[in-house]
């Protein structure tokens, strides 16, 4: 296809996004003004699915037995690929949409609706997949286990940030709650009769810190005390800490996790306490499909947006999008909406600012155009699939 012709076809998609921009802004601002925590995003789901239904999408709710998970589907002409555009819409406790999920969810809906409106006879199926509880709840992991992403040819979403990037990575991680059990006693008159669960926990922190010298640079271990006892004159019979353990890959994470767990168990044994470990969901490392990312980058650049390289070291967290990327070619690019860093009150403000709304529109356009590429460019689609197959073979 002639490059100029293709650019003109994509301009039609941009115009389709512009035509619904007010609708998208209204939805994003309503979600922002009504922040809901993970697995409780009932209002956001109604606003997003309601708009999709108005625009001719079929809606499935309670996906994977999650009340706030949904799929909105539109199919053009048969014979094309099935593309998933992922929506997030949960907020953070206390600081609301400080990760910009009001933008993520709405831009996904906008991309799908605009593409349908611009090319109603497109060969392909578009699924807007609503994934709840990214902030620690691991909604996508439950959906992966239920096979929600198995029929997709590709998956994508766009995250707001302070820098536009298409290939930023993500660490594998696991959450663990350490519960320490000792024996209460009067801390002054009979301390010898007590076993301090708090000492077991404090020793665990010290032991974990002692391991850091022997971790590789990709490893991150960080925790907080969630229960340190009830009164200073009572030897604590119970204490609790919550940790997140991260590494570059799931394989590396398993080894790090075992070292941390052994340090905690040994610290408990040293004071005569016992420890119970409650392990959370395993978040996989991010597997960015480079072919797909480059398609997306070109569609950002078509809008005049500069794309930057990700940090060479550090600067990454973890997300359940990593688990999706183990199943299907996936990207998780970022769009700049301002200077503030995520998970701050300043970013909460940015996600309802003019910069935030511009980022929403830019993300919707880029995802719609990238989906259009996959539905119209057989060579690009096959190259993306071949890259993923090679990755699977080597992993």
Automatic annotation (TrEMBL):
Sequence ranges assigned to domain Peptidase M20 dimerisation in this UniProt record: 176-265
Recorded GO CC terms: cytoplasm
Any GO BP annotation: folic acid catabolic process
InterPro entries, sorted: Amidohydrolase, Bact_exopeptidase_dim_dom, Peptidase_M20, Peptidase_M20/M20A_hydrolases, Peptidase_M20_dimer, Xaa-Arg_dipeptidase
Pfam families, alphabetized: M20_dimer, Peptidase_M20
NCBIfam families in alphabetical order: amidohydrolases
Family per similarity comment: Belongs to the peptidase M20A family.
UniProt protein name: Peptidase M20 domain-containing protein 2
């Amino acid at each position: 296809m002639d490059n100029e012709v293709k650019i003109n076809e994509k301009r039609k998609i941009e115009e389709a996004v512009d035509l619904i921009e007010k609708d998208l802004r209204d939805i994003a601002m309503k979600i922002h003004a009504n922040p809901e925590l993970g697995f409780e995003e009932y209002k956001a789901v109604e606003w997003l699915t309601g708009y999709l239904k108005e625009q001719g999408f079929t809606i499935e709710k309670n996906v994977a037995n999650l009340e706030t998970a949904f799929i909105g589907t539109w199919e053009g002409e048969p014979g094309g690929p099935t593309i998933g555009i992922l929506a997030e819409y949960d907020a953070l406790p206390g600081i609301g949409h400080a990760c910009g999920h009001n933008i993520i969810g709405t831009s996904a809906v906008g991309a799908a609706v605009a593409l349908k409106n611009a090319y109603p006879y497109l060969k392909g199926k578009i699924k807007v997949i609503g994934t709840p509880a990214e902030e620690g709840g691991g909604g996508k992991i439950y959906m992966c286990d239920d096979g929600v992403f198995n029929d997709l040819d590709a998956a994508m979403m766009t995250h707001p940030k302070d820098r536009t990037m298409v290939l930023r990575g993500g660490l594998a991680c696991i959450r663990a709650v350490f519960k320490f059990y000792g024996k209460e006693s009067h801390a002054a008159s009979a301390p010898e009769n007590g076993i301090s669960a708090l000492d077991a926990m404090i020793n665990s922190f010290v032991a974990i810190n002692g391991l850091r010298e022997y971790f590789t640079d990709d490893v991150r271990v960080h925790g907080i005390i969630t229960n340190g006892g009830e009164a200073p004159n009572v030897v604590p019979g119970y204490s609790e800490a919550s940790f997140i353990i991260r590494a570059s890959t799931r394989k590396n994470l398993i080894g790090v996790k075992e070292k941390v767990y052994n340090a905690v168990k040994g610290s408990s044994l040293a004071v005569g306490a016992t420890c119970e470990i409650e392990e959370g969901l395993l978040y996989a490392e991010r597997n960015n499909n480079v072919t797909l990312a480059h398609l997306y980058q070109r569609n950002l650049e078509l809008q005049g947006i500069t794309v930057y390289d990700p940090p060479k070291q550090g600067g990454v967290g973890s997300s359940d999008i990593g688990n999706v990327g183990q199943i299907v070619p996936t990207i998780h690019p970022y769009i700049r909406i301002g200077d503030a860093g995520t998970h701050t009150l300043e970013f909460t403000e940015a996600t309802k600012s003019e910069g935030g709304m511009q980022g929403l529109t830019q993300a919707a356009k880029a995802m719609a155009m990238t989906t259009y590429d996959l539905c119209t460019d057989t060579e690009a689609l096959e190259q993306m699939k071949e890259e993923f197959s090679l990755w699977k073979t080597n992993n």
